[in-house]
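Working notes for the structural subgroup meeting. M.R. asked for a predicted model of this chain before we commit to crystallization trials. I am recording the input and output together here so anyone reviewing the notebook later can reproduce the run.

Input as submitted:
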Amino acid sequence: MKYKAFHDGQPVPVLGLGTAHYGASSERRSEVSTLRAALDMGYAHIDTAEAYGGGGSEIVIGEAIQGYDRSKLFLTSKVRGSHLRGEQVMEAIEGSLRRLDTEYLDLYLIHHPDPKVPLEETFEALNQLVEQGKVRYIGISNFDSDQMDKAYGLTKSILATNQVHYNLLVREPEDNGVLQYCQEHDVLLTAYSPLKNGVLQQQGVRRIADKHGASPAQIALAWLIAKDKVITIPQSHNVEHMRDNLGALDITLSAEDTSSLDGLATGAMQVGR
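Returned structure, recorded in token form:
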């Protein structure tokens, strides 16, 4: 695994595992086995949220990590955008810790901002959680650059990350200033849905994949993690896809490759995957 670091030097895997669709079905035993296979092949950062599967994702992860060295895992969860009042945050963290069967979270994020709740109130609670040792780092998700700047000033420790939708065809973080803000303020940008929106069907991606003897997914992920302050959390229920994604860590894109991939978003058709 390769790592980037938070502002204080804490290393974070550049390639994590998203679990938005875990825990919502009756296939939990299979999902636990899949997550354990991922841990065995080298994944250490698992991303979840209280909203995923109605809490089911956290339960599956809690079962999957039993028997593994907790100190070597990096667990991220998120408080719902509808739970941002101070007392709601304090209640939500207890639910997440209980379902994950862990004493602390490595990273706790605001899942979505709520304009009806002052950020000052939410961050007062989040800062308390860090002081209490229930959360090591706090961050945000789906914040624009102005909201991010306000959050940055309210964090008593560090603002660790802003988790946003970002991939070869979805360039909003570049256009709205979020990527630039992260790079200028030493905040990691965590890219979710890195392989969605038809990314893998793009001929430009397939051409560069063929050149490197790689898969389109590996090229799309390599493009992201090559960027300053960017890490990513692809999601999969398929063990072989997880293993294939790890191959992105071994790819070095040339300047020509990067330039070609940078231009893909212009005029690209946004199709579902």
